[in-house]
Amino acid sequence: MIDQPFYLTEPDWDALPIGTIELSSRQVDLAIQTSQSIANPDTNSEMQWQTYINALALAGFKEWLEAWGSDLHLDETQSTLQALPPSGWVDAVCNLQIGSFRLCLVAVPSLADPVVMLDKAIVDSPALLPHFYVVVQVIEEDMLVQIYGYLQADRLARQRHLSPLRAIDRTYSIPLNWFTPDPNELLLNLRCLDVNAIALPTETTPIETAPTEMVPDSTSRASFSALTQQAINVRLWLRDQLDPIVAELSWVLMPAFTPATAGLRSTVGELENIAEALDRLGISIPVQARAAYRDIAQGSIVVRLYAVVWELPAANTNPEWVLLLILGTPTGHSLPIGTRLQVNDTEQLLVEEAATVDQPYLYTQIAATWHEQFQVSVSFNQQVFETVQFSFNPDTTTN
Amino acid sequence: MGSVSRYWRLVRIAASGDRKVEELTNAKAFFQQRFTRWVESMDVADLEVQQALLLLMQTKDNSNPNYRELAGLCLRCYISHEIEQECIRLEQKFGDRHGFTRRDLFPFVLNDEGRQPLFQSPDSTYRPLAFQVLQTFDPKQAKLNTWVTRLVKSCRTLNAFLRECGVYLESDWSILNQTRREQLQRILTEFHALSSVEVEQACQLLQAYHQVYRQDRLMQRQQGLVKGKEKCMPPTPDQLTRMVQLLDAPILANRSSSYLLSKLQTIALQIRQFRLAAPPMQSLNQTETPLDVAAPQRDEAEAEQQEFLQVYREQLLICLDEALEQATSDRVGYLQRKKPQNVELYMNALHLFHCQGYSMGEIARQLGMRAQDAVTRLLELKNFRAAVQQKLLILLCDRLLDRAKIYAAPSCLQQLNQRLEVALDEQIAAVIQAAEIEATVARNCPLESLFARRLCHYLDTRRSTS
User: Which of B70, B276, B281, B355 is buried deepest, with most CB atoms within 10 A?
Assistant: First the structure.
């Protein structure tokens, strides 16, 4: 007798979900052909099989687009099924283009598995990074394909900061529930989203301009900008207002900072210690300055980035603001050797500070005119922990 | 436990297609003579009876050469009851929605007429399912009724029929084919808590399976030996031998093909158990949570805004009509390309649903479609509504923003834009949501939601102009 645990049930029939795509024989034949041209069947049968499955996924995706997204044009000329990328074979269909969006299809055999395994390359490699990852279920024997849902790349980037990804061999394990299980939402995004609203991790976001296109958001019914990595507008800080984006990204706005508020909260105290040290170095923080901080975790390393801003009196026609960045640790211990703080503007690297032995803080100060924008990166041994955009936008009215 | 008469009464298909129960006198006589003790009791322990019959079936008794045949016949009778039960169960679970009855299923599996001898038929003639059951049954592996069900579930022709009705069952061999080594490793380690040795062995078996089975499957498709939706069959003896050869002795000590086969089946079962136990995924058919419908912000003091809102209400209708037309045309265009015979069915079904409030089942009957499942599949209402919603949003935003430029100063435009999107989105969602809720209850009168009314208006116009 087969040992059967109490919760076992025998395999049983199921109704096909509505909207399941049934592939034609011709589509299957094409998929076979693709698998033969991409992978050499003699040397790697696993690669050939997976390519076949991925080709089926693409066929199903195209079929679905034809049915519900016929206004969208799919460009597959650069896809990884047409030609191997320089980094080598990858178990996904990458570099699909719809409008200005890049998509990457990931095939899974069953939607009952709460974990999706993504090829590391499609998460880490800038050349393959998409705007949207799309999970597609493929059941080869029945020639069935189901478009399950999608995950925006910036969401993945944020999520992995909060819970670092588990790596197994060449893959990362991603919870399926990070994906939005509604293909219609994907269609909405492809039709209406401004591509600049999705900041891909290694790119710099262009200067924030008033959007002239519609950016309707139906995913959370909240302000759409909360979902994107737009620049933090420090102007609002100075008016003691927290940008909704900033809250979303877990910055903590500190109360009005004056040397006299010593002892109120430990963090304020900590910053004051830093301020005193900076004062001795000739950098003084004025009374009207505002500060916020954010803890950044990567594996077992936790660092704390303080951002202190203040306006300079408009002595000339070009009013200025100052951004003082301090990188430390929540506990005040030394930073790991090799921790780097970098500041870029839209064109070039401005500042780079690296931690050496026994250094509890890195700091840098930048003065800028209104509308200038900066990208601040915290990295450790070439791996970027975090990238933050700061700008000073006085035109933004508050609601 | 059950009536002992199941062992000499055979369930089979009558000429009419219905089922009938035939009492086999030879089987009855045999059973009553050999197992008098059981005949007296109302209920029998199936396990004991089956064990005894199997034993008889397997021993060659030269003094009574037809005992084997008769014992087999008794078991065939029992099996026919089990097959019928499975067909009934399928009918109860899916028959109504998917348009079939047990009678449709019988010809595929309830195909033993009790005439053909079990032991002398050459392999090439038609063999009932029951024969296959008896030939492959191993009492150490499973109970007989379980085995019957399993073979019913792997019957190719039955699967093909059910598949056409929108019901499917993934085979063990497909599951093994598509599960990756890393996935199996995770499943066995985390879910089944097996030891690393066991996990390693299973993974290696899977890998050997992949190497042989996947290659063959690809080649079969290439060469046209497998066309279309062909179920993955159990590995052939040749395939099993090739797999065994790929595995070292430490991993697979017992080098027999049948042992490997049963190990593979165990792995498939373990994967199924994992899938079944996983928390249910959010289904695509789940409706969104109800939203608070916020009225567009009014500032009573601003006459301009009032006028603007008037424009909004007009434009909503105009744009909704356009969106409905576009979405319907898109769908019709798609069907025209893929399945032109469905175009008329589609338009009729759409009309019956929204303009007359027919249920899916009634529509199926009216249009001569197999079952409500076929109608649901054709209409794909959720996707249709989403398409209308998105088109409406884009159209409305466009129109209103144009008009808004007349009313708002440029510096306020951005702000207005954002507020407009949010407000519109909620308004439109409410329209769609009302349609959604309405759609869940059939009502035999025209649907009242704005969505349905405008759609009907469009469909009626389209009919009168075509």
Answer: B70
In this complex, the residue of A15, A17, A32 whose CB is nearest that of residue B284 is A17
In chain B, which residue's Cα lies nearest the Cα of A184? B386
pLDDT at B331: 95
CB B80 within 8 A of CB B106: no
* Cα torsion B286, B289, B293, B296: sign: negative
Looking at residue A261, its amino acid is T
B48-71 pLDDT per residue, tens: 889 889 988 888 776 777 888 899
Which residue pairs from A60-65 have beta carbons closer than 8 angstroms and sit at least 24 positions apart in sequence? A60/A21, A60/A23, A60/A136, A60/A138, A60/A145, A60/A146, A60/A147, A61/A93, A61/A105, A61/A134, A61/A136, A61/A145, A61/A147, A63/A21, A63/A23, A63/A27, A63/A145, A64/A21, A64/A145, A64/A147, A64/A183
Whether the complex's predicted ipTM is more than 0.90 is answered with no
DSSP-derived secondary structure letter, B214: I
Task: Provide the token pair at A124.
Answer: 């880490």
In this prediction, residue A80 has a pLDDT band, given cuts at 50, 70 and 90, of very high
Chain A residues in contact with B173 by the CB 8 A cut-off are 141
pLDDT of residue A231: 60
Residues of B in contact with A213 (CB under 8 A): none
Structural tokens at position A7: 């919760």
Q: Are strands A171-175 and A115-119 parallel, antiparallel or unpaired?
A: antiparallel
Q: Among A316-320, A370-374, A377-381, B28-32, whose mean pLDDT is lowest?
A: A316-320
Q: Contact A175/A205 with Cβ under 8 angstroms?
A: no
Side-by-side strand order, sheet with A132-139: A21-22, A144-152, A132-139, A101-108, A93-98, A74-75
Choose the weakest-confidence range: A295-309, A340-354, B269-283, B355-369: B269-283
Phi, psi dihedrals of residue A292, rounded to the nearest 5°: -145, 160
Q: Judge whether A394 is closer than 8 Å to chain B, CB to CB.
A: no
Q: Strand, coil or helix: what is A123?
A: helix
pTM for this model (two decimals): 0.66
Q: Which of A159-163, B123-127, B369-373, B452-456 shows the lowest mean pLDDT across its residues? A: B123-127
Q: Give A194's contacts in chain B (Cβ within 8 Å).
A: none
Task: Say if the Cβ atoms of A184 and B387 lie within 8 Å.
Answer: yes
Could you tell me if A5 lies within 8 Å of chain B, comparing CB atoms? yes
- The DSSP string of A41-93 is TTT-HHHHHHHHHHHHHHHHHHHHHHHH-TTS-EE-TTSTTTS--TT---SSE
Distance of CA A97 to the CA centre of its chain: 19
Alpha-carbon span B421 to A213, nearest angstrom: 11
Chain A residues with CB inside 8 Å of B242's CB? Answer: none
